[in-house]
């Protein structure tokens, strides 16, 4: 084939449209929605921006955000973890019981215990998914039941109440460092840490790669087994950590703590722009999703909108978010096909 | 044609035709089962504990079963199981007065006596109802405490259990009536919210109330879960001292908040006595001493003699008010 | 073995020794041996399905050879994963792009060996710089920050090339890297590859374009039906020699095309266009006629026929079948009107591998076989037995999963499935891809027979001998345009190939 | 012979066997399990799960999922209560509720098949949306005064015997679904779509339209289940059936339907439903807490996919070892 007959490629001339930014706009969309919502609510009810109100919203977001960070990692890897609510319950009850029996135990031990319980639960999930070759949806639906059953059969009808756990354990959720509550700090550290790992470290990028194309990931020599385990351990450990925070924040814990939480976490992740088919989305997006869901809840309460509308609005929002995501993707694909075609 | 609301299709429910024999001896070995709203609730635990004591005194067989969530339908399977196990008495705190009804009817057809307590089932599907206090009495007491804590005027709000909870709704209705009276005319009930008897939900509902109503003076929570959660939130927020919490609570759960000043006054009956009375009423029914008709009398162990009021209601007695002074005398 | 080791080459850098690989009943590679020398580009040629890609995948650690060994620097290689092959210094460009659509182009290139900062974080700046440098070397402009999703096939291929170049491998294996590229890019690629070669890397190059092979390679290995035919120095062979050894049989005897007088017009396609895929395609097909659609891989043949059948949409133009216009995008309507399409990708489009042979054969016909809307056991079984017997399909029992059959027998099941619908027009896309010589002849005999019985046949094929042997008329597509229509008499290897490549016949 | 072995190895056959075994064991070993009244209760308890599992089986066989079913049930229940309060006749309300269920299903169908959104995400969204709308419709109220003629029929039995009236509904629908899935061209296409939707499209199956109708049917059945639920408990409430979706999915997967689509049978699913209900009932009669059943459910669910995988894995590795054992030609 002679060189002379070949056409000059069109894309040599045109400056490239920067697709990366469009992807990032997904999160900008959430930020925008947040700003509008907060502004509207604040105009109607200035106290919404009061320090107590903001603290409350952040405190309420913190646990959801911690779990959403872990869930985002798993979803980015093209899996799902429906067991987080049960892991939270298991961890919350265990930690509360241990603290009840050992009043002198420091908070760090509680946090460590929760993380460890969650990590073990995550290892089981990850191992079943990878080595058992069982779809994550089936595995974690199964362990969702199993972990919950474990907590129930151990806890029975018992409840650990706020007055039975050590003071410092309860105070932890509300006391602050430089005005920022510990719970919020922990959530921020988790989002930043996991976010950094997913963005800037090899393992994070490999998780994105696995979610983006499992087949190509195998060909690229990525260590699928280790990475799958890591993803589930992160999700499990963060759910365990969430359990400690839950116990500390609410004080009263029983075997049903966190029941049904998994769908809320998935919702936060999806609203936060993490694609359910893996490969895209960010941790801070998931955190924003958690914040948005919480703010919607608080705003609707403050705006004196019938509280029954709240769940419907959240549902509609989730559907909307998925639809918008898809629309953007389709439009990009179409414009690229047209632009690059030689015909 | 067709059947629409209001058409009376002659709802069929078996009417009790048996007559009472006040002198009948209490049978031994009666199988008495307790089915509270949900299992993992300390109030339920204390309550059923009283029942266990009574069943022990009556030399019966005690059993405690129940769902983990307070959904309307989840008690039904348990009733069915208890029918299969041929219990003699079922004591139930109904999550929904109607949802449990068909099953309770079946139980009665199978000869099982039904004692509802704490939260009533529909009148025609139980034999007697153990009311912790008269609805009127509790409602008045709640309104009175709210008035005192608000200093006679200002905004108050109610944090209730589930939206369908029979007893809470009845009390709230009385509170609303009370507020129309002249001495309460400066009190304004701004909102009623529901924490579903879940700790977390109640906690967040309390938050929402305080945000929406900055001038709120009192939160009245006629449920033990709600009052504990609201007190915990307020004690850890900067609303502490500005907003008073009152309602119905367990002394053990509230002790901390009474001591730290968040709560100065709340009320409750002695829950274990409800269970205790329910067990004795059940035994009396199963032994034929009573049938549930108005005016019948029976003796409930250490609690003494009780008379059945209209609609098969048995009232335990007036609620106790707890304050910093007396709270240490109670342990439940 | 006919390996010619010229003294200048020294010892082999990588050696393939008597390797075999089967997939179920398909023996993809059987006892193949050849060496790759440092500083040399080595071509691997063979027809579709000859086993080239399978060899590549064994070298890459994707497949493990059933028997035989691979040697690197004289030592037996022991990798059994892509990571192992990578560590041994082997870089591979696969036939199908293997990019991560959600990651940026730069990340795709760096995946697995991204540059790290002191804190072990990924060094995006240097990653981007690396990508940009590679693109400059290849003479293309692709934004390293854009996601790989939405890249054209050509750009994807270039990213694959950049990926392989980025690792500075000892051995670079390229499976049809140029299939989607235009001349400029091919030239750039070759100059880069030449410089790598001259720096001492061993190159393995697979292509169906002989001028590329002669321009780049020093040595060639020819494969046929999974077997090694010969390994020679390139200057010892003419292109004709290569083709003859590749095809390895006499064209005239293999295909038993009967002569037919074409009947009524069955299909008329007018000005059919689909943005980015094909444009302004018009042709007709008559009863009893076999029309071949020839062209290079990716020229748009399959897309045209899929649009005609209705599984793909089209933007403009008309399809008239038996005098009636067909609604676009409705395969069911086309089917009911009497059209059948045997798709090119058996595994993805032709068969449902997890269903039984019986269910596959009767899938398009289930509605017709049902009585009162119900399918009683017997009807499907009878139909399937009938057609599989007609096509002499070999299998255990009708309830076996179709995925357990050999490739050739799978192909027969696809044919059975569509012949059972009694079509007036049969479109067959690569009817003999991946099936053995005997079956191939059978399929050809069958097609010829069907045409003689009055069925119209459109055959898309990449195999020139098949096209020349079977077709009454040959249509040639190039880059989505219909560039030539040749009668049986005019169609020769040269005329078809030159039309497909866009060059005049200069004799 | 080998066909028989193939059937024996498939999970749905195993689960039918396990169910029969558990049934026999429970009848023999658990007091009061075998009597008629208990049978009535058993059927009434499993009815909503069994009903919703019928279309869910089809949806999962096509490789999709519908998590919004329980919320659809709740919403139709709430609407039923609301319409009843507004004075509509029950004879009108019931078909209307089924229709509304179908409409809610159609919304899912459009979002998933027209817009091409992933079904898992969409139905998590509508799960929240429909439940929320149920609260909007009925709020915290409960409507309880449905006519005895209807509530009594739902809880009643045929001639006062052990067979509940509603079992007729279930049997009729199960037969219809079974025949459609296993003996009609439509059913054939569902398996084809699930195993390879591209090949199904190339075979003339309208994949998007087929899936759309499945969601409509799923919604309609969930609506019917909502009606029956409301009548059984004489209570229309917004929270009716909350959390039921996961029980249904668990039963479907336990019944041997592959979550990736293309494989499964309705009989397997129905025995999965029955197995879970029998275990729950028998354990409760034995005074084993319902919580232990959570563990059993979870473990069964994972085992139902894990065990066949392990078996094929072991078989493959044995096969490979045999291949290796053949002496390699030396060059
Ligand atoms: N994963 C697989 N499973 C089953 N059969 C396979 C698999 N991969 C390849 N084959 C079969 O092996 C044979 C050789 O295929 P291969 O891809 O090596 O051919 P090729 O020479 O690369 O052809 P082409 O020029 O079309 O790329 C074909 O018959 C093909 O169908
Ligand atoms: N999904 C797609 N998106 C964008 N472009 C595509 C898509 N599928 C195919 N193409 C492009 O359409 C053109 C025609 O491809 P097609 O598969 O029809 O070629 P062909 O001539 O049939 O070759 P083959 O020998 O592979 O069958 C190619 O340039 C290909 O890259
Ligand atoms: Mg190939
Ligand atoms: Mg093609």
From TrEMBL, chain A:
Keyword Chloroplast: no
Record's bilayer topology term: Multi-pass membrane protein
Entry annotated with the keyword Transport: yes
Chief location: membrane
Coiled coil: none
Top-rank lineage group of the source organism: Bacteria
Location of the protein in the cell: Cell membrane
Keywords: Cell inner membrane, Cell membrane, Membrane, Transmembrane, Transmembrane helix, Transport
InterPro entries assigned to the protein according to its UniProt record, in alphabetical order: ABC_transp_permease
Transmembrane stretches, start-end: 28-45, 57-75, 82-99, 105-124, 136-155, 175-198, 229-248, 260-277, 284-303, 309-329
PANTHER family attached to this UniProt entry: ABC TRANSPORTER PERMEASE PROTEIN YPHD-RELATED-RELATED, AUTOINDUCER 2 IMPORT SYSTEM PERMEASE PROTEIN LSRC
Subunit: The complex is composed of two ATP-binding proteins (LsrA), two transmembrane proteins (LsrC and LsrD) and a solute-binding protein (LsrB).
Known role: Part of the ABC transporter complex LsrABCD involved in autoinducer 2 (AI-2) import. Probably responsible for the translocation of the substrate across the membrane.
Protein name: Autoinducer 2 import system permease protein LsrC
Species this chain originates from: Catenuloplanes nepalensis
Automatic annotation (TrEMBL), chain C:
Residues in ABC transporter domain copies: 14-250, 261-504
Keywords: ATP-binding, Cell membrane, Membrane, Nucleotide-binding, Repeat, Sugar transport, Translocase, Transport
Name of the protein: Rhamnose transport system ATP-binding protein
GO molecular function terms attached to this record: ATP binding
Record CDD domains: ABC_Carb_Monos_I, ABC_Carb_Monos_II
Organism (species): Catenuloplanes nepalensis
PROSITE patterns: ABC_TRANSPORTER_1 (PS00211), ABC_TRANSPORTER_2 (PS50893)
UniProtKB/TrEMBL annotation, chain D:
InterPro entries in the cross-refs: ABC_transp_permease
Membrane topology per record: Multi-pass membrane protein
Ribosomal protein found in the keyword field: no
Subcellular location, record wording: Cell membrane
Domain of life assignment: Bacteria
Keywords per UniProt: Cell inner membrane, Cell membrane, Membrane, Transmembrane, Transmembrane helix, Transport
CDD domains: TM_PBP1_transp_AraH_like
Bilayer-spanning residue ranges: 14-34, 41-61, 92-112, 166-184, 212-231, 243-260, 266-285, 292-311
Name recorded for this polypeptide: Autoinducer 2 import system permease protein LsrD
Native organism taxonomy: Bacteria, Bacillati, Actinomycetota, Actinomycetes, Micromonosporales
């Amino acid at each position: 084939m002679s060189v002379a007959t070949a056409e000059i490629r069109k894309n040599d001339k045109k400056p490239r449209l920067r697709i990366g930014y469009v992807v990032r706009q997904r999160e900008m969309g959430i930020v925008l929605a947040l700003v509008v919502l907060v502004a509207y609510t604040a105009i109607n009810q200035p106290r919404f921006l009061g320090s107590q109100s903001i603290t409350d919203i952040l405190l309420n977001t913190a646990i959801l955000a911690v779990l959403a960070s872990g869930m985002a990692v798993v979803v980015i890897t093209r899996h799902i973890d429906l067991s987080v609510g049960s892991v939270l319950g298991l961890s919350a009850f265990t930690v509360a019981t241990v603290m009840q029996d050992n009043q002198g135990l420091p908070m760090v031990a509680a946090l460590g215990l929760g993380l460890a319980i969650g990590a073990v639960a995550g290892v089981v999930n990850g191992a079943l998914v990878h080595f058992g070759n069982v779809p994550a949806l089936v595995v974690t639906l199964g362990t969702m039941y199993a972990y919950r059953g474990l907590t129930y059969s151990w806890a029975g009808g018992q409840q650990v109440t706020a007055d039975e756990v050590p003071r410092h354990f309860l105070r932890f959720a509300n006391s602050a460092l430089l005005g920022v509550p510990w719970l919020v700090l922990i959530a921020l550290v988790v989002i930043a840490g996991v976010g950094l790992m997913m963005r800037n470290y090899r393992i994070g990028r490999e998780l994105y790669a696995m979610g983006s194309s499992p087949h190509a990931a195998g060909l690229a020599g990525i260590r699928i087994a280790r990475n799958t385990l890591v993803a589930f351990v992160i999700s499990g450990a963060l759910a365990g950590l969430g359990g400690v925070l839950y116990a500390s924040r609410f004080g009263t814990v029983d075997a049903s703590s966190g029941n049904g939480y998994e769908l809320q976490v998935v919702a936060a992740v999806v609203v936060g722009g993490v694609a359910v088919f893996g490969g895209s989305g960010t941790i801070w997006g998931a955190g924003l999703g958690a914040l948005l869901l919480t703010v919607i809840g608080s705003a609707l309460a403050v705006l004196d909108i019938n509280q029954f509308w709240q769940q419907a609005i959240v549902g509609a929002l989730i559907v909307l978010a998925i639809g918008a995501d898809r629309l953007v993707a389709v439009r990009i694909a179409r414009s690229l096909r047209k632009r690059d075609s030689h015909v | 044609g067709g059947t629409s609301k209001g058409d009376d299709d002659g709802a069929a429910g078996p009417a009790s035709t048996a007559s009472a024999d006040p002198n009948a001896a209490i049978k031994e070995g009666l199988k008495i089962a307790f089915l509270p709203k949900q299992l993992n609730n300390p109030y339920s635990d204390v309550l059923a504990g009283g029942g266990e004591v009574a069943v022990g005194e009556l030399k019966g067989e005690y059993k405690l079963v129940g769902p983990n969530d307070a959904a309307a339908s989840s008690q039904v399977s348990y009733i069915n199981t208890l029918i299969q196990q041929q219990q003699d008495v079922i004591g139930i705190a109904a999550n929904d007065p109607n949802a449990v009804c068909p099953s309770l009817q079946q139980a009665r057809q199978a000869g099982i006596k039904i004692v509802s307590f704490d939260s009533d089932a529909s009148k025609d599907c139980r034999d007697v109802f153990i009311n912790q206090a008269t609805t009127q009495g509790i409602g008045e007491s709640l309104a009175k405490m709210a008035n005192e804590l608000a200093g006679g005027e200002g905004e108050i709000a109610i944090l209730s259990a589930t939206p369908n909870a029979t007893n809470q709704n009845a009390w709230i209705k009385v509170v609303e009536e009370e507020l129309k009276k002249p001495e309460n005319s400066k009190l304004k009930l701004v909102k009623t919210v529901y924490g579903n008897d879940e700790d977390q939900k109640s906690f967040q509902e309390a938050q929402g109330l305080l945000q929406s109503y900055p001038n709120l003076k009192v939160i009245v929570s006629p449920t033990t879960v709600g009052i504990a959660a609201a007190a915990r939130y307020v004690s850890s927020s900067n609303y502490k001292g500005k907003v008073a919490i009152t309602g119905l609570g367990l002394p053990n759960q509230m002790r901390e908040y009474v001591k730290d000043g968040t709560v100065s006054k709340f009320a409750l009956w002695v829950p274990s006595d409800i269970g205790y009375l329910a067990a004795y009423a059940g035994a009396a029914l199963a032994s034929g001493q009573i049938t549930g008709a108005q005016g019948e009398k029976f003796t409930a162990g250490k609690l003494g003699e009780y008379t059945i009021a209209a609609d098969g209601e048995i009232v335990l007695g007036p609620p106790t008010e707890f304050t910093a002074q007396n709270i240490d005398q109670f342990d439940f | 073995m006919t390996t010619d080791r010229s003294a200048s080459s020294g010892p082999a850098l990588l050696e393939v020794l008597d390797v075999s690989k089967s997939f179920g009943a398909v023996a993809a590679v059987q006892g193949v041996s050849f060496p790759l020398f440092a500083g040399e580009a080595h071509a691997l040629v063979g027809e579709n399905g000859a086993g080239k890609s399978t060899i590549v995948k064994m070298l890459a650690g994707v497949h493990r050879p059933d028997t035989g060994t691979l040697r690197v620097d004289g030592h037996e290689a022991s990798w059994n994963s892509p990571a192992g092959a990578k560590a041994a210094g082997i870089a591979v460009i696969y036939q199908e792009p293997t990019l991560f659509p959600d990651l940026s182009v730069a990340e795709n290139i760096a995946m697995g060996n991204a540059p790290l900062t002191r804190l072990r974080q990924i060094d995006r700046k240097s990653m981007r710089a690396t990508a940009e440098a590679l693109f400059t070397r290849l003479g293309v402009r692709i934004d390293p920050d854009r996601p790989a999703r939405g890249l054209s096939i050509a750009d994807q291929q270039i990213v694959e090339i950049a990926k392989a170049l980025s690792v500075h491998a000892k051995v670079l294996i390229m499976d049809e890297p140029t299939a989607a590229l235009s001349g400029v890019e091919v030239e750039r690629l070759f100059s880069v590859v030449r410089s790598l070669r001259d720096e001492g890397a061993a190159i393995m190059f697979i292509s169906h374009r002989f001028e590329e092979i002669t321009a780049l390679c020093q040595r060639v290995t020819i494969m046929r039906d999974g077997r090694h035919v010969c390994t020679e120095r390139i200057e010892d062979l003419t292109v004709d020699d290569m083709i003859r050894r590749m095809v390895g049989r006499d064209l005239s005897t293999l295909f038993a095309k009967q002569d037919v007088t074409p009947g009524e017009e069955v299909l008329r396609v007018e000005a059919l266009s689909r943005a980015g895929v094909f444009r302004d395609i018009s042709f007709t097909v008559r009863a009893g006629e076999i029309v071949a659609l020839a062209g290079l891989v990716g020229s748009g043949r399959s897309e045209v026929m899929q649009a005609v059948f209705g599984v793909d949409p089209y933007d403009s133009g008309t399809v008239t079948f038996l005098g009636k216009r067909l609604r676009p995008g409705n395969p069911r309507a086309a089917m009911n009107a009497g059209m059948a399409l045997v798709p090119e990708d058996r595994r993805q489009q032709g068969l449902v591998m997890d269903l039984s042979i019986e269910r596959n054969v009767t899938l398009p016909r289930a509605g017709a076989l049902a009585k009162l809307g119900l399918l009683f056991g017997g009807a499907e079984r009878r139909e399937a037995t009938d057609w599989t017997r007609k096509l002499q399909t070999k299998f255990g029992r009708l309830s076996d999963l179709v995925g357990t059959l050999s490739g050739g027998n799978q192909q027969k099941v696809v044919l059975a499935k569509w012949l059972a619908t009694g079509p007036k027009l049969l479109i067959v896309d690569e009817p003999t891809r991946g099936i053995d010589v005997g079956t191939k002849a059978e399929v050809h005999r069958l097609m010829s027979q069907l045409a003689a019985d009055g069925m119209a046949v459109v055959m898309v094929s990449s195999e020139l001998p098949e096209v020349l042997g079977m077709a009454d008329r040959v249509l040639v597509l190039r880059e989505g345009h219909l560039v030539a229509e040749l009668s049986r008499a005019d169609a020769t290897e040269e005329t078809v190939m030159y039309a497909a490549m866009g060059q005049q016949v200069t004799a | 012979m080998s066909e028989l072995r193939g059937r024996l190895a498939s999970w749905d056959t195993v689960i039918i066997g396990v169910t029969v075994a558990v049934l026999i064991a429970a009848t023999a070993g658990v007091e009061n399990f075998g009597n008629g009244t208990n049978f009535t209760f058993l059927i009434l308890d499993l009815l909503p799960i069994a009903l919703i599992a019928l279309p869910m089986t089809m949806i999962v066989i096509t490789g999709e999922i519908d998590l919004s079913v329980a919320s659809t049930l709740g919403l139709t229940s709430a609407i039923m209560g609301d319409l009843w309060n507004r004075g509509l006749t029950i004879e009108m309300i019931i078909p209307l509720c089924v229709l509304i269920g179908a409409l809610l299903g159609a919304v899912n169908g459009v979002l998933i098949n027209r817009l091409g959104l992933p079904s898992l995400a969409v139905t998590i969204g509508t799960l929240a949306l429909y439940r929320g709308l149920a609260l909007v419709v009925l709020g915290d109220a409960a409507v309880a005064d449905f006519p005895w003629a209807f509530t009594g029929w739902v809880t009643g039995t045929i001639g006062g015997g052990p067979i509940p009236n509603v079992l007729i509904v279930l049997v009729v629908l199960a037969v219809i679904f079974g025949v459609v899935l296993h003996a009609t061209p439509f059913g054939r296409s569902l398996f084809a779509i699930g195993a390879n939707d591209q090949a199904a499209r190339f075979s003339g199956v309208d994949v998007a339209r087929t899936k759309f109708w499945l969601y409509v049917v799923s919604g309609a059945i969930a609506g019917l289940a909502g009606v029956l639920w409301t009548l059984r408990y004489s209570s229309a409430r917004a929270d009716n059936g909350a959390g039921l979706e996961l029980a249904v999915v668990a039963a479907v997967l336990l019944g041997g339907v592959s979550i990736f689509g293309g494989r499964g049978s309705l009989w397997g699913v129905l025995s999965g439903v029955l197995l879970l209900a029998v275990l729950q009932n028998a354990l409760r009669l034995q005074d084993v807490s319902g919580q232990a059943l959570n563990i059993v459910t979870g473990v069964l669910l994972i085992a139902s996919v894990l065990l066949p995988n392990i078996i094929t894995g072991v078989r493959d590795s044995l096969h490979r070892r045999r291949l290796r054992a053949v002496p390699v030609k030396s060059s």
